[in-house]
Structures are given as C-alpha cells and as structure tokens.
Design brief:
54% of the residues lie in helices and 16% in strands. Helix 3 runs parallel beside helix 6. It contains six helices and four strands. It has 160 residues and is α+β, with helices and mostly antiparallel strands. The mean pLDDT is 88. It has a four-stranded antiparallel β-sheet.
C-alpha cells in the first residue's frame, strides 16, 4: 500500500478539528452562544474593536517582566501563553518592521468566529505589551492578511 500524503485541504481540516478539540467542553457551548450574541449585536468592526479592548485589559492583567532584546521579549510573552494553552508567538525583526506571528491560538475555534475579527484580541494584547516593552509611540501594530491557516494570526509593528 503506497504512502498517502494528505492534501493541503486535508491538513487544514485536521487543524480545524484539532483547534475545536482544544476548546474545553466546559466552556464551548457558552462561548459559542456568547460569540453569536455579540455578532448579532455588533458589526464585525465593532466586535473586533470590543475584542481589542479585552486584549488590552488582558495585557494589563498579565504584564511582562522587563527584558532586554527581542529573544527575551519573545520568551516573556510565551511564558504568559504557555500555562494558558494559548499557543505561542514568534517575533522577527524585519529591519523596518517587527513581525509578530501567533500560532495555535484557540480563540477562533472557541468563539467559532472569523480570525480577522477575533484577531482583535491578540492585537490589543500585543499592542499593549509592545508599548510597555518600549516600542516608540509612532509605531502601530496592524494585522496582516489572514493566512487561511486555523489558529494562526500575524501582525506587523511599523511606522503608521
């Protein structure tokens, strides 16, 4: 029997399944109806803005240790995410910008909502943490286009 290599679509389906598996059954029903109610009451832009504000509050409740250097900052951020099972981040200096890539984020699956909308939460978190870490105020964190990969969100910090 020849080895069967999964297609890209099969791989995405598996990732979506695993993302839903990571959501605690204790909270999945509640989070789904909460998300549906918010989506009924708010436009996608308002919903994203609401989640952005929640992200800012989350970052305020989880301040990072003072660190020096990008590697240490990445480690400090991942030290917050790891015990919460919220995935991990990679920070990459691109010269004129900082690339922030968060992988294995359970929020799109938990809320069963579009990653571009729920990405507002991570945008709020990372904006707050990066400012606290010394990012100049003229730099703005912006979402990058959706990659289509479940549990994957990317942002770029650069001059606005």
């Amino acid at each position: 029997m020849p080895d069967q290599v999964p297609s890209a679509e099969d791989t995405l389906d598996l990732m979506r399944f695993l993302a839903l598996e990571r959501v605690s059954s204790q909270w999945s029903g509640f989070l789904l109806v909460l998300s549906e109610a918010l989506a009924e009451q708010l436009s996608p832009t308002e919903y994203r803005h609401f989640l952005l504000r929640l992200g800012e509050r989350f970052a305020g409740l989880h301040p990072l240790a003072e660190v020096e250097g990008l590697d240490a900052l990445e480690q400090a951020i991942n030290a917050v995410w790891q015990p919460l099972a919220w995935g991990y981040v990679n920070l990459t200096d691109q010269g004129g910008a900082l690339l922030v890539v968060h992988r294995a984020c359970p929020l799109p699956a938990a809320l069963q909502a579009d990653a571009e909308v729920v990405g507002g939460f991570l945008e709020g978190v990372y904006s707050t943490w990066l400012k606290a870490a010394g990012a100049p105020p003229e730099l703005v964190l912006s979402p990058l286009p959706d990659s289509g990969a479940p549990m994957h969100m990317a942002f770029e910090l650069k001059a606005g």
